[in-house]
Task: structure prediction
Amino acid sequence: MTLKITRRQFFKLGAAGMATSSMAMMGFAPEPAVASIRHFKLSGAKITRSNCTYCSVGCGVLLYSRGDEAINTIDNIYHVEGDPDHPVSRGSLCPKGSGLLDYVNSDSRLSHPQVREPGTDEWKQISWDEALDRIARHMKDDRDANFVTQNDAGSTVNHWLTTGFLAASASTNETAYLTQKIVRSLGMLVFDNQARV
Amino acid sequence: MRGDQINLQNIVARSASPAPSPQVRDGAVETVTKLIDVSRCIGCKACQVACSEWNDLRDDVGECVGVYDNPVDLTPNSWEVMRFNEYENEQGNLEWLIRKDNCMHCAEPGCLEACPAPGAIVQYANGIVDFNSEHCIGCGYCVAGCPFDIPRISKKDSKAYKCTLCSDRVFHGLEPACVKSCPTGSIMFGTREDMHELAETRTDYLKSRGYENAGVYDPEGVGGTNVIYVLQHADKPEIYSGLPKDPRISPMVEAWKGVTKPLMSAAIGLAALTGFFHYVAAGPKEVPPEEEEEMRAEEANEGLSRQDLNGQDRNGQGRPSDEEHRP
Result:
């Protein structure tokens, strides 16, 4: 369809358009005042309490996730911030803790057990059952071979020095108690936590 | 009470828009303030990370230039940056002054004053100055208008970005992300009154520790700011990586918005009004019939000659006819 306008009409239209638009730009056009312009991204999020595992301070964190755990959804964590109710940190976090989200969602994060067999240079994915069985087998064999009941002086020591145990940095009192009991009851002396690595 | 009056983030000022009508009821909105106590800051940058996390900003990994500042300057994706400064005091001792540089949320914001795009910059009743990139036209006037050199224009979408004081969080009763993360309590958040009270406690403490010139940075030139600093040396703020001593909105912005623009608006209005009255009094411009005839004849002639030209073109290898498109 062609628009029939004369040269004069065209100029008139142009002038009128320019006049009205400059009036609007000069502030003569009424604009509705709108409220808050930003969407609050935590609305409807599920909040889960957790601990930052970066160091032994063990600050409390709140994990905000989408999804209601229904069968057809995969939930994902999209925001992490400090837990104000946590007695240690009371909501504050260090730069590493503040950036936990990218750590949680990192591509290089381990999501399953891996093993590097002796003599190879690659990591192989194994199942949790396999991993736990192997660890138990190795521990048992090593303990049977190297458990020391008496030292050179003849005193009873009952220790096992050839295997060490590295525990989590941010454990509850109960977890720490149980870990200590298990490790010590095996006679293990080399025992530390991840925060001192 | 009307809904918009109890809205904590009622907009009280809007760029390039007429001033809203005054309201007697203020909806009990209190001005919020962020207090940055430079003397307590350890420069851990938790606030920077928390800011990036909350606002979904991931800046490019930069290059080390030999200083702790990282990134070296504010960018469209880094709305705050810690500025590290080594200062030798009168006793010849080294002081490490670390200032968190971000938007000061001025009571009289230069950016809002300078902005020509309606609604691109707003000021809420609680004092937060926020950019609405939906309306931003990327002209960069806010950069020129800001006495603290805060806004940055993105090269990707040509829009201005800066700290929002987490207006979305504050609206929902939370503190800004940087405030929450701070492990030393260097960044505090609350009502303006409470923050000034706290700032006074801190300056008193600093004075008792030998910092005679300790004080609060809340510059008058921009009507006070909603982000205030506690400085050990409040008498010389420039040592804190160039914090302006007496920041003011650029006189160019004042001249444009205060004088030129209203005058020009009046001139345009006057011209339109004069035109209207002229039309009413003298009527539309009329062309005498003989002139009209003359012009028609001329136009007809022109049309004929152009058709000839097209005819020649078609015979050669010329362009296709544009006859159909001609009015």
